[in-house]
Amino acid sequence: MEPQEEYCHLLKRARQNTSSGLLEMVREQPARLQDERTPLAELIEFILNAAVAEKASDVHFEPLGQEVRIRLRINGCMKQFFQEMPWELYGNLLSRLKIMCSLDISEKRLPQDGRFSFLATGNRALDIRVSIVPMINGEKIVLRLLNNQDSFKGLEQLDFSSRNYEVLRQKCSSGNGAVLLSGPVNSGKTTDLYAILSMLNKEGRNIISIEDPVEYRIDGINQIQVNEKIGYTFEMALRAVLRQDFDCLAVGELRSAEAAELLITSALTGRRVFATLHTPGAVKTIFRLLDMGIKPYLLASAISLIVGQRLVKRLCPCCRQEYFVQKESGEGIFLGGKVLGQSDRFFRHREGGCAACNYTGYAGRIAVQELLFVEGEVAEAVMNRAKYEDLEAAAIENGMTGMKQDGIAKAALGYLELTELMEIF
Asked: Rounded to an integer, what distance in angstroms lies between the CA atom of residue 3 and that of residue 118?
């Protein structure tokens, strides 16, 4: 049976079963609902299994009025995969998911977050992170699929160039100071952070991480789950951890000036400190921290390295097509004369793809990165509050390869399309 046909069949069964019996179970036997084998449970399992098969990172349930649209995020792009769900059935699905996450099923006015475990086809264990936000047409659900087997990677698997990989490994493994991982939302910062912590995870080290939420559990690392509802904030956890005799400290996200100041202070004590920030690139991270009120001399002294990163669609190696860029074309102008003079051969996806990439032309995503070393002329420029252009020039002079240049090098090797980079830079 085709996926759409099976979905329609399960949808019909679940709709027929949407009776007072299910509603009564929601009200009177909520614990039983988690394990009850109903058509609604089968429908949820089918959607999640289909999302895993499509290698989706997120499932979106979007209320549109009388119906609910279901879309998947695949290779960073939204794709409508399932037929729209009837509104009366969506209410029961929403209640079931809330109960599975131990959320308040009666609360419809405030956002709620939770998580549950799911065993996908083939015994693949997933953690599902659930976000529910009220919209004008009803509550929207986003399910983030966290697959420990596929998503958790070693540092050598994270698309760094050979030079950047060696520098990052050396900076993380020896010395002290802060290593900051920056990029937009969903740019792979957390994946990088876990890879670094996994590399450093040895019996002789006390490693502590502060996260919200804890996405992957790593044996041997002391992981703290922040709980804003009871007042257990990043700032409170950071102040407490400073008395925990740690060797390495990781903060899932710097959200406030107080947390940033505490982290920088920790880095000045001679310990290794890691954190992520939502900024467009490595150089702009400096200005974000300055805007938070961190003194320039503290930044220059405490920060060792800043990693800037973005994710773009990876070309399918089985069906990518070779072509030559013309100098007068938009891509030629984007590359510039010097780069084009070295090589004008690049690659693009094939329309319709092949069986290996599920007929999309793409196979996952790849990172483009830049590493900013805060030392020498760069540290001096930070202390002098240099302009963005001057700080970037000092960084390049000090050995930084910008994300655009890193992307062009990977495009020449056939890993990604130039048009993907042109949309970013």
From this structure: 20
Q: Alpha carbon of 36 to those of 105, 182, 244: distances in Å?
A: 17, 43, 44
Distant-in-sequence, close-in-space partners of 83: CB < 8 Å, separation ≥ 6: 4, 7, 8, 11, 70
Q: What is the pLDDT of residue 152?
A: 64
Token reading at 2: 């085709």
Q: What length is written for the chain?
A: 425
Alpha helices, H only, 112-233:
148-151, 162-173, 189-200
Instruction: Enumerate the H helices of 295-352 as residue ranges.
Output: 296-302, 330-335, 337-342
Q: Which amino acid is at 204?
A: G
Amino acid at 271: R
Give Cα 319 distance to the centre of its chain: 27
This prediction's pTM: 0.83
Distance CA 361, CA 349 (A): 5
DSSP three-state, residue 311: strand
Distance between CA atoms of residues 363 and 154, nearest Å? 19
Quote the pLDDT of residue 27. 47
Specify the amino acid at residue 175.
Answer: G
**pLDDT given for residue 55 in this prediction:** 86
**Could you say which DSSP state residue 188 is in?**
S
Q: List the structure tokens of 257.
A: 């000036």
Show the tokens assigned to 377: 């002329």
Name the residue among 211, 256, 203 with its Cα closest to residue 237: 211
H/E stretch holding 119: strand 112-120
3-state class (DSSP) for residue 352 = coil
Side chain identity at residue 305, one-letter code: L
Q: Is the peptide bond before 213 cis (omega within 30 degrees of 0)?
A: yes
- What pLDDT score does 369 carry? 95
Q: Token match 């992981």: residue? A: 223
**pLDDT means per 10 residues in the chain (425 residues)?**
77 69 47 60 90 91 90 89 85 89 90 89 86 94 80 82 92 85 90 92 90 84 89 89 88 88 86 91 94 92 94 94 87 75 81 88 93 92 92 92 93 93 89
- From the number of C-beta atoms within 10 Å of its C-beta (0-12, 13-18, 19+), residue 151 rates as middle
E strand spans, 26-66? 56-63
